[in-house]
Design goal:
This protein has helices at residues 3-15, 21-30, 33-49, 56-90. By secondary structure, it is mostly helical. The longest helix has 35 residues, at 56-90.
Length: 96
């Protein structure tokens, strides 16, 4: 079984109605499997904290927002690591 199918099974098992294949294809193209997995796990947590009352649309939107937010953090963290590496290797301090 491939990883994408495993993510769909995870969604179905804990969140109910599985989003369309088109939704998953969009997520894969936009975020990749690791971020999809994180988004699903956070959505499971949120749905449980709300007593299982999230609508299907809310679940999809929440998962998408988690993925977008984490992707932005990953980009920012990579930029910070590169900047720190430059400071360490070259002794530069950005705009100073």
């Amino acid at each position: 079984m491939n990883e994408l199918n495993e993510l769909k099974i995870l969604w179905g098992r804990f969140l109910g109605n599985i989003p369309s294949d088109q939704q998953f294809d969009f997520w894969v193209m936009t975020h990749g499997l690791d971020l999809i997995h994180q988004g699903i796990l956070k959505t499971i947590q949120k749905n449980l904290s709300m007593g299982g009352t999230m609508s299907n649309d809310h679940k999809i939107r929440f998962a998408s927002k988690v993925m977008l937010t984490q992707q932005a953090r990953n980009v920012e963290n990579a930029a910070n690591r590169a900047r720190l590496n430059d400071e360490f290797v070259y002794g530069t301090r950005g705009n100073q």
